[in-house]
Design brief:
By secondary structure, the chain is mostly helical. It is built from six helices and three strands. The protein has a three-stranded antiparallel β-sheet. This is Helix-turn-helix domain-containing protein.
Length: 109
C-alpha cells in the first residue's frame, strides 16, 4: 500500500471540503444562484403557479415536465419552486419567439 501524507481522518476532512466546494460551484452554475446565506435566492424562486403562467401551460403539463426531467425544480416541504433565472433561460432556449408547442387541437382547428 502506498504512503499517504496524512491520516485517514485528515484525508476525509480535506475530501469533504473539496466535495462541498465543487458541489457549491455546480449548483451556482446550474441554478444561477447563490447557495449560502442569500436572501435574494429566496426572492428569485418562482412558484408553480408563476411558472405555469409564464409558459401558459397547465399544472399537469408542468408536472409531466418535472417527471420527465425536462425542467428542474426544488422541493421544499409540499411545495415546488423554480429558479427564476433558470426558467427565463429555459423559456428563451425552448420557446424562441414565444411560439406555442403544437397540440392535437391546434392541428385540427
Amino acid at each position: 500500500m502506498g504512503y499517504l501524507p496524512m491520516t485517514l481522518d485528515e484525508f476525509r476532512e480535506e475530501f469533504t471540503k473539496l466535495f462541498d466546494q465543487k458541489a457549491d460551484e455546480f449548483f451556482k452554475r446550474v441554478f444561477g444562484m447563490k447557495t449560502e446565506g442569500n436572501d435574494d435566492a429566496e426572492q428569485s424562486l418562482m412558484t408553480t403557479n408563476e411558472v405555469t403562467a409564464c409558459f401558459d401551460i397547465s399544472r399537469t403539463t408542468l408536472n409531466n415536465w418535472i417527471r420527465m426531467d425536462k425542467i428542474i425544480s426544488i422541493k421544499k416541504g409540499n411545495q415546488r419552486f423554480f429558479d427564476r433565472a433558470y426558467i427565463e433561460r429555459y423559456k428563451k432556449v425552448n420557446f424562441s419567439f414565444n411560439e406555442k408547442l403544437p397540440t392535437y387541437y391546434s392541428k385540427n382547428v
